[in-house]
Design brief:
The complex is a heterodimer. By secondary structure, chain A is mainly alpha-helical. Helices cover about 85% and strands about 0% of the residues of chain A. Chain A has one domain. Chain B has helices at about 5-10, 50-60, 80-85, 100-110, 120-125, 145-155, 175-185, 200, and strands at about 10-20, 25-35, 40-45, 65-70, 75, 85-90, 160-165, 190-195, 205-210. The chains are: A mainly alpha, B alpha/beta.
Chain lengths: ~230, ~210
């Protein structure tokens, strides 16, 4: 285990390398954005004639965000294996730093997607959030939850043959608690009739924080075995 | 030998190392000890387990039986310290094609937790006859240039253990000569393991392991 300051610096080095690679190749971002914007357009055209309640709208939003995460977040690890760069990374970086860097990269990538998808969703669905601050918090914590579960699953499936299918199959049950709470908190942000909404959202926000912390802590414990064995 | 000198003596011990993949036994009870100043040459036909033995010595692959020990100044070093201890070259090792050679080297140095300047990078590249090519993306490099770049990668942290799998693969005559000089120079301060079938490189070995098919 590296010291925390070294771990931070080395994780940031991995993050910077991934961002630079992504900037030059658009390997993950183009796939994720293409999927999310297309899915969002299909959803909005399909349901626009109907008046949906906040729960249904929130569910649609997180379905788009979840599947966009599925289409892109595994790539940070899969790419290392496919380009055969994983070996150089294994002999030079600590497992903790690789995990930290990949987690940060997935958070940045999914945050960028959410920053585009959420406003576009509100626009296309002609929805005005009753509590914008709560919506931002729900989107940020939901993104963290998705990134934290996707990162460890991506590491597990990256050396398997049927990576895409395996990633989705493993990600769904593991992401469900976080996804469910993100939908709940988003629905409350769209509904916004205080104080009931605040009470309901507070519970979901707590679950999202606990879920992300649990995923990151358990991933840090497991990652060395996943990465090196 | 001085106390400081002794503290820098590195020892790699392979103790009855066996490795199986399913029913297929690749390595059968291989033992050897090699120290700073010595070269261990591993030779044998294709599929005999040379690359596997190098990866086992690197502790990238766990042996099915037996153990691998690293000792620096008589003190055992854990596998987790490997990134500071080993310089590794292999045909399986690839760089990020979309990054420049300098960016690759800077990243790997940062990942290893060592400070490196632009001058250090340029100097390393120049010593491998890649001077002035640090700003080119690795994707534009020939296979021989990538092989030279692997030496800059493997030596950037001055590791006490150098593991070279097919050290002269893809190199021209000048490159082969450069690598042989480098091995001779490094031998003074490092423990070196080479997996090769080139007679000249096998001849560099103080200890030779011949693996069967």
């Amino acid at each position: 285990m590296t010291s925390s300051s070294n771990w931070g610096r080395e994780s940031l080095a991995v993050l910077w390398k991934d961002l630079l690679s992504e900037f030059r190749t658009r390997y993950s971002l183009s796939a994720v954005l293409l999927f999310s914007v297309t899915a969002l357009a299909v959803v909005s055209f399909s349901v626009s004639p109907y008046s949906l309640d906040p729960e249904a709208k929130a569910a649609f939003l997180w379905i788009v965000l979840f599947f966009s995460a599925m289409s892109g977040l595994s790539r940070s690890f899969v790419r290392e294996e496919e380009a055969r760069t994983a070996l150089a990374l294994r002999v030079s970086a600590s497992a903790d730093a690789v995990y930290g860097g990949k987690l940060l990269f997935n958070i940045v990538l999914q945050s960028a997607v959410a920053a585009i998808v959420v406003p576009l969703f509100l626009l296309l669905m002609d929805t005005r959030p009753a509590n914008p601050a709560l919506l931002v918090a729900a989107a940020a914590l939901g993104t963290l939850a998705l990134a934290s579960s996707s990162t460890i699953i991506a590491a597990i499936v990256s050396r398997a043959n049927a990576k895409g299918a395996l990633f989705a199959v493993l990600a769904f049950p593991l992401s469900l608690p976080g996804l469910s709470s993100a939908i709940g908190a988003t629905a409350e942000a769209l509904r916004g009739n205080m104080p009931e909404a605040a009470t309901g959202a507070a519970a979901d926000i707590r679950v999202l924080i606990a879920y992300s912390a649990l995923m990151i802590a358990s991933s840090l414990l497991l990652f060395d075995y996943v990465w090196n064995d | 030998m001085t106390t400081d000198g002794k503290a820098r003596v590195f020892e790699l011990a392979l103790e009855s190392v066996s490795k199986s993949y399913g029913a297929r036994q690749v390595l059968r009870s291989v033992s050897a000890t090699v120290r700073t100043g010595q070269v261990l040459a591993i030779t044998g036909p294709n599929g005999s387990g040379k690359s596997t033995l190098i990866k086992v010595a690197c502790r990238l692959v766990r042996p099915t039986h037996g153990q691998v020990l690293w000792k620096l100044g008589g003190k055992e070093i854990p596998a987790e310290a490997g990134r500071k201890i080993i310089g590794f070259i292999s045909p399986d090792l690839m760089f990020y094609d979309e990054l420049t050679a300098a960016e690759n080297l800077r990243f790997f140095a940062q990942a290893r937790g060592i400070k490196i300047t632009d001058e250090d990078i340029e100097s390393a590249l120049r010593s491998l006859h890649l001077g002035g090519r640090g700003a080119d993306v690795v994707g534009s490099y020939s296979s021989g240039m990538k092989q030279r770049l692997k030496y800059a990668f493997a030596l950037q942290h001055d590791p006490p253990l150098l593991l070279l799998d097919e050290p002269t693969a893809n190199l021209d005559t000048q490159g082969v000569s450069l690598v042989h000089d480098l091995i001779e120079d490094s031998k003074r301060s490092k423990c070196i393991v080479i997996a090769t079938n080139e007679p000249e490189e096998v001849g560099l070995g103080d200890i030779i392991i011949k693996l069967g098919a």
